[in-house]
Each structure stands twice: as C-alpha cells, then as structure tokens.
Structures
1.
Amino acid sequence: MALVDLKITRRTFLTTGATVGIAGLAPSYALAAENGDTPWYRRGRIETTYNYCDMCPWRCGIVVRSVDGVVQKVDGNPLDPKSRGMLCARGQGGVSFLNDPDRLQAPMMRAGERGEGRFEEVTWERALDFIAGKINDIKERSGPEALAIFGHTSGEYWFTDLFAQAWGTPNAAKPSSSLCLSPREEAAQLTYGMAVGGHEPVDWDELRCLTLIGSHIGEDTRNTVMQDFATMWSKGGKVIVVDPRFSSVAAKADYWLPIKPGTDTALLLAWMNVLITEGRYDASYVADWTVGFDELSAHVADLTPEWAASITDLPAEQIRETARVMADNLPQSVIMPGRHVTWYGNDTQRLRATYLINALLGAYGRPGGLYFNKSPFLEEYPHPPYAVAGSSGGCSAEPGEEVSDELPLGPSGKARADGARDTFLRGATALQELIDPMISGDPYRIEGLIVYGTNLLNSVPNKPRTIEALKALDLVVAIDVLPQEHVAWADVVLPESTFFERYDQLWAVSHKTPYIAMREPAIPPMYDTRPAWWMARELGIRVGLDAYFDWETAEEYLDKRLRSVASNLDDMRAEGGIIMQNGKPYFEDLGESSPFRTPSEKIELYSQQLADAGFDPMPVYEAVEEPPAGFYRLLYGRHPVHTFAKTQNTPVLNELYSENELWLNEDAADDEGVADGEYVLLENQDGARSGPIRVKATQRIRSDAVFMPHGFGQKTKKLTRAYGRGASDTELQTRYALDPISGGAGMRINFVKIVKEV
Ligand code: MGD
Ligand code: MGD
Ligand code: SF4
C-alpha cells in the first residue's frame, strides 16, 4: 500500500484545531491530504470506524473516517467519557504516526551482532517458529519463569497478561507500574482498600478546591483532565500547586508553592497538623469512616508549619493559609492522586500522606470530592485456569483486577530464597528489578525477554545495566511499530500494525460511569505488519497453549465477550462504539456496606498492615540526599505535544517541537556564565553525559534543580527525525531509589552539572 502524502505543515496542523496545552482542546477538523481540487470527503465512500486513541495510555475514544483505505480524519468520539468529542494535539497527530515512513515494515531476524541493528527480512512463519523453538528450550531447561515479558501500549494485554499467565511466567511487567504509578496504587490499597484506577476519580463537576502535588496539567495533556480543569477553573475553583517549577498549571493557580524537591511529605504532615490542631477537618466523617485518628493527631502534634518551613523552603504562613483554604472548601476539596509518582524511593508513604489529608477533608465518596470508581461488567473470554495469576499492574490496571499473591522472581512465582523481595508488600512486578537477574542469575537466570510496546532503552533507568542484560540474554524479541533504539538489540523483530489498522481488546474502563470502548481497523494493515492478538495466538498455538486461544478471528473473540453485556460488534458500532453502564459513585449509592476494603473496612490513618510488615504505620518525613556542590537535582516531565519517547519521530509532532530545552534558573545561569538559548552538555554524579541541550534561562524554576522534558536525545539513526535532537533524561538516570513498599523506582535522585563544551 502506498504511503499517503498528507502534506501537513505546522501551520495547517495548528489551524485544524490542535494546539498546545490547555488552549489545545478543540474539536478536530480535517487532516486531509490536499489532492488536486477534490477534498477528501468527496473522493469516495467515507468509512466510519470506532477506536480508542493509542497516542498515550489515556485512550480517548475516537471516530476515524477513511476513504479508499486512507485514514483522513480523526475526531474525539462525542459519546466517549474521556474524549467527549475532543482530542489533544498528540491525538490529532495519530494519522501522522500511522504514516511515519520510518515504521517497521516486515518481520526480521538478526544478521549481525546484537546491538548492531543488522537484520534480514523473514516470513512470519520463520520468525514465529524460531521464537517458539527458543522459548520451549528455555522452559525445558529452566522453567517458564526464565522468560520475562515486558509490555505497554494498549495491545499489552495479549502478551503481558494473556500469554504470560497461560505460559506460566510471573515475570511479566509494565513500565507504567513500577516506573510510574505503583506507589499510588499500593498506598491506596493500604489506606482505603481500593485501587485509584486508570482514571483518577476526582469529582470535577462540584469540586471547589484542587491541590496538585507535582502534577502538571497542561504539560500533562490528558484530554479529559484538561477539559475538567478548565471548567473547574473557569467556575472560580481554588487551585493550589506544589511544584519546584512554575508549570503551566501553576500559572493558573491561586497559590504556587515552589517547594524544595523531595520534601513534600513534610508539607503534607504540616497541613495535617493545621487541619487537626485548628479543628478544620470533617469530624463526623473521620469518626464514621476512619481508624487511627488519635494516633495520627499525636503523630503530627509537633509537625507545625514552622517545622516544615525550614525543610520545604516555604513560608510557614503560606503552609497554614493553604491548609485553611483546603479546609474551607471541604468536602469538595481534594489533593489529586498523582500519576507519575516514583520520585525518591519513599513514595508510597508520600502518597499515603495525601490520602490521609483527603480523608480528613471527608472527600472519599462525597459529591465534589473523590467518587468511587466502578468497573464495567464484562465477562472474560472463557479460558482454562491460568498457570500463574497476573501481577503486571500498570496504567490500565483497574479495580477488581487480580494481582498475584505469589511474589514474582522466584521459581514458579515463589518468593526468592534470599528474601530480598519480601519487603515488597503486594505490588505488581517491578520491571526494573527483573534486569539484574538477567545478568547475575540471582536468584535464577532470566534467559529470554519479549519486549512488547516498551521503549526499553528510553524508559528504564540505569541504561548501561539494561544493555549488559541485553547482551547476556539467550533470546530477545522486540514487538514494536518503530525501530526504537532497543530494537537493534533484538534477535527477532515483529512489526505490529498501529491502532488504526487492527482489532484489539475491549477497553473496559473503571469510571464514575463505567464504560466499554472498542477498537476496529480503519484500514487494512500497512506493509507486512500484524496485530498483537494474532502474534500472541500464533505463538501460543506453536507452544501448546491452543486452549487459551480457541478463537479464529478477533471478531469472534470480541463478539463472545460482548455477548455477556447483551451486545456484539455490529450493535456496538451501531450505538457509536461505546457501551455505558451505571456507576455507584457516592456513599448513598452503596447501601449499608462499607466501600473500603481494608481489614478494618475503614480508611486506615494508622496502618496496622504496614506496622506488621516492619514499616512506619503513619508517614514520616525522611530527608533525601542533597545535590553535591556544583550539581543540580535533575527533574523531568512531559511536554504537551509528545508522549514519553515514542512520538518524537512523528512528523507533525516533531515539526511542532523537535528538541527539548533545559530549564535553568536565570540567576544560576548567570553564575554558570550560560546565556539563554546557549547549548550545554549535562554530566551526572556518575560521569554519564548527555548530548547538547539548549538552555531556557528562567525564573520559573528553583535554583537547586533543572528540568527537561522526557524522551529526547534519541540515539538510533533509524528514527530519522528524532535522531540526535535534544538530550535524554534517561541517559542521566544511572541510578534510582527503590521504594521498598511498592517496588517503584524513584528517578529524581540523580544530579547533573553544566558542562560548557559544545
Ligand atoms: P514510550 O516511549 O511511550 O514509553 O514507558 P514506555 O511505554 O516504554 O514507549 C512505547 C513503546 O511502544 C515505543 O517503543 C513505541 O514505539 C511502541 N509502540 C507504540 N505504539 C505501538 C503499538 O501499537 N504496538 C507496539 N507493539 N508498540 C508500539 C512509559 C513509562 O516510562 C512511564 S508510563 C512513565 S510515567 C515513566 N516516565 C519516564 C520519564 O518521564 N523519564 C524517564 N527517564 N523514564 C521514564 N520511564 C517511565
Ligand atoms: P511528570 O510529567 O513527571 O508527572 O504526568 P505527571 O504525573 O504530571 O511531572 C512532574 C512534575 O513534578 C513537574 O512539573 C516537576 O517540576 C514536578 N516535580 C519534580 N520534583 C518534585 C518534587 O519533589 N515535589 C513536587 N511537588 N513536584 C516535583 C505524568 C503523566 O502524564 C503520565 S504518568 C502519563 S502516562 C501521561 N503521559 C503523558 C505524556 O507522555 N505526554 C503528555 N503530553 N501528557 C501526558 N500525560 C500523562
Ligand atoms: Fe490520545 Fe491525547 Fe487522549 Fe492521549 S489524551 S489518548 S494522546 S487524544
């Protein structure tokens, strides 16, 4: 199939409605190719298909229009609770992602050394037979757990969930868990016995006060969150932003607290001190729905704003005043659970502190607070019992989803002999903890790795260690759409069709109004690519797992699942691609039963579970390491038009923002003798160096930290537009701090100095 010349320039892209950040929400208009005088919608029959966007893990529902096998236009699905007819700039860039000429086009097997990137194209049969033979050998030699599977993006289910559980490896992991939100989920389970879930349950419509701790709505351009924030803000809701950086959302805030990085738990404890000592909490809610209030009161009695001021670098009066603003608006006042929360290695306790404040404010289960998410009813496709229970977690983990009781990384899922992982309470498998055993063989060797939709060398800290592991493995399989850097290290490369070209698993979303969204192909697969469900099934059949894959086509699979909700693909399509169900968001919807699934069936301000496991039962402030002299703490985050490290090569998004900048405090820049716009290198505490990066000298960041958008400085020439543009934060994250409760990898413990040799 020929590539489409979309002729989208930055100007036409922006005028079609996709702009950057909060201002970027707009209905989508034609992304059509100009082709003579005939507009795309008069060129042939318009096919309409339903899908969910995969340009980021938020997965907004979309409606796709194509003509003659060419995708022409993507709109937000107006029925979808996430998109509500709108898309962000990245969603608009989806068509450009589809048509990226650098895409992987055919299955390949390695023809040179690992890492060299020399491959020969092979047939699907040869590639799959080879993988099946290799993993069967591994299983026979060392057991099913010697195969690890990493997965992200929306096809992850077929490999990290279905295939891994059927095969019998507990070593399946998602970067969206231990490199993103595992502390948030673990803290939620410990404190109130529920998962936060994929969609943070802030009850925006009636919310009156929003507090954000290091969550930067606007750079974090999740479509729905930006829409909700804009509505809440325009209605005069109060906004408190705690961030060492004057982020986009700080610019809209009533209070910006430029906190010293790593000290948030001290601030949160001082806020609790004010709420409790001044009697500004919801006393009847606390009496009805919490345990441990007396212990908490005693715990924070001396942790005054004055105590926190010296730690956090914030004025005591500002700490006191913001606590009072939160309390004045209770229960329609919440601290939003963060998303990327693996910061310093003590993150579960920090998240617990935020939840304790939300409980003091009486926010859970109250209109304008935090509603109770509910998963939609939808039966699984029938299958024989799995060999292991799922434990991979991640952004898409929804409440009710089973998490393995067995600890990963032990023969057949048993805890490792040296007990090292016994410290993890119950979290999902920590991806970064599976890398050492690939090298050391301790407690046993992981010999094979399937990398599905995970940007291994751009997402996981300590890249030199990952490369060592890639050299040591007996089998590396990369399943991707683009020739990302790690693909060069694979023995076999399987090119997937993009989300526009395939059926996929139903997206069953735990929400205030639970719902199910569908994905169907708008066009046939381009090149010699295939969907993940097909690959997992073909591999499964080759290794004797036929019983788990007893359907012939994706339509058959999807229709069978949809039958459990009295629907099928045709009906769902006819209804606009979304099935809605009723939620039970507030206490009054629940009857007598407690929604809190903790041992006490209450919100546990004091956690006996933590005490029994040898951890602090209430959050304690622990100082984190300071930057050495001459170094800054390295902070990183999102850019509005890019997703992680996967869209830098997407033509229209690359055109909008092709290289990242280093936010450096203006006074610090003067001291360094560096001018705004000058290129510098960064060197970290271990001597790792970045590529050149342009300085943005600004008063919008504290002078003890620098900030850079994640995902740039790509090293592979195969990504022709992203190659060598900007600098990589991952290259500078040679170490991380392990959160012993959740297994999360705190990446903000790296420091950099400026090097002026460009
Ligand atoms: P991406 O760069 O989005 O990040 O970690 P990843 O999910 O690994 O990589 C997605 C990969 O999927 C890319 O290789 C892309 O080419 C591929 N892909 C895209 N579409 C498809 C598809 O349809 N099929 C297949 N098979 N592959 C596809 C994200 C993770 O990173 C997260 S969630 C967080 S919050 C952390 N953020 C972060 C950070 O900010 N800085 C640093 N340094 N590391 C981080 N790691 C974590
Ligand atoms: P980060 O992008 O890491 O996480 O979005 P967020 O959860 O908002 O944002 C980090 C913020 O924390 C920065 O503003 C930084 O200055 C601040 N910060 C750094 N250190 C500290 C500290 O010690 N204390 C405090 N209080 N603040 C600190 C991540 C989210 O974004 C995720 S996980 C996903 S899956 C989505 N990815 C994504 C994307 O890739 N691109 C875009 N455009 N939007 C996205 N939205 C989502
Ligand atoms: Fe797509 Fe943007 Fe929605 Fe993410 S937030 S799913 S990129 S439209």
2.
Amino acid sequence: MDSLQEIAEQVKMCRQCRLCEGRTNAVPGIGNPQAEVVFIGEGPGKSEDELGMPFVGAAGKFLDKMLASIGWTRDDVFITNVVKCRPPENRDPLPDEIQACSQYLARQLVLLKPLIIATLGRHSMGIFFPDKKISEMHGKAIRTKGVNGPQVYLPLYHPAAALYNGGLQATLMADFQKIPQLLNQLKDTKQHA
Ligand code: URA
Ligand code: SF4
C-alpha cells in the first residue's frame, strides 16, 4: 500500500528528470494526511530548496496570511507542487519535467482524496485544464467526480504573482474566501449522497 511518506522518500531519491541535478533538497509536500483541501503550487524556489518544504519564502508568507484570513493554518491542509525539485533560476518547469514528476502528484491525490484541489498559478491549473486561461478561470469552482465522491478544482492565482500586484492580490484574497463555503457545500453533498 502506497503512503504519503513512501512517496516523499521516493521523491527525495528521484532522478527521473534533470531537475534533480540542481536541487539541494527535493520538496515532496507537507500537511495533514486527512486534509480536505490540497494546494498545488508550481515548484520549489530558493528557500523551499534549502529547507525541503513548500512555500516557506515570501509567497509562502502570503499563503499563510490567506489561510489565517479564513481561520486556518497549514495543519488544516496539504501543500505541494507540480514539480518537486527547484528549476534553475526559478524558470518555469518544462513539459518533460512536469510529465516526469506527475506520477508523484497523482499518487498523492489518490491517497489524499481531497474535496477541493486548489491550483496556484497557471502551471498548476495547466496540468488539469491545459487549454484554459487563468484570467478566466480563477475563483471558479469546477465540479468533477473524484474517486471518493464529489471533487472540485478551484484555480487560484499564484501568491508570488500577487505579491507585487495589488489588484491581483485583492482578487486572490477574494477568491480564497470562497473556500470554506465551498467545502461546507461539498461535505453536505457527500453526506447526503
Ligand atoms: N512557489 C511555488 O510554486 N511553490 C513553492 O513551494 C514556493 C513558491
Ligand atoms: Fe524526480 Fe520530480 Fe525531482 Fe524531476 S522534479 S527529479 S521527476 S522528483
């Protein structure tokens, strides 16, 4: 039986794409194994690579602030990335790197069975909705059927993009506020299914 810990161990030893060459630490992801909401970022940056943890730099502080704004902490959710190793100079992950790493995210999602998959930024949204535009999709819940019943994708802007853009920051914060109500609806639906 697969476990989140097992996946993390495999990620730390993984050499399935070129991103392994520049990493200090792989960043498998962290959080509550019972989480009902999973956040998926793009890939580790400098601080994340140094510490082996997701979203610990400036963008992470903003993510913490958004979580606090709905009364949550990191312990309530699970946080991971599309690619688990830092792309050099924080460049975008390449399609073959995303492809090579996708099995880890897929397995994490099978185990977590979240009610809400919140994608952060266009690369993260792009693995589920390759043809959509984030400017049109952000803040809109996309309902699907997961292995465990109802499941919703919620595309959000990336907190790093919002850091230096006040308008985007307000939009991201507003979209984020939809999470608790959306989650309650989903739990309700699940209960009465
Ligand atoms: N940006 C990301 O997309 N992921 C992180 O873990 C940190 C910053
Ligand atoms: Fe392996 Fe993913 Fe790291 Fe590439 S980015 S080496 S596929 S863990």
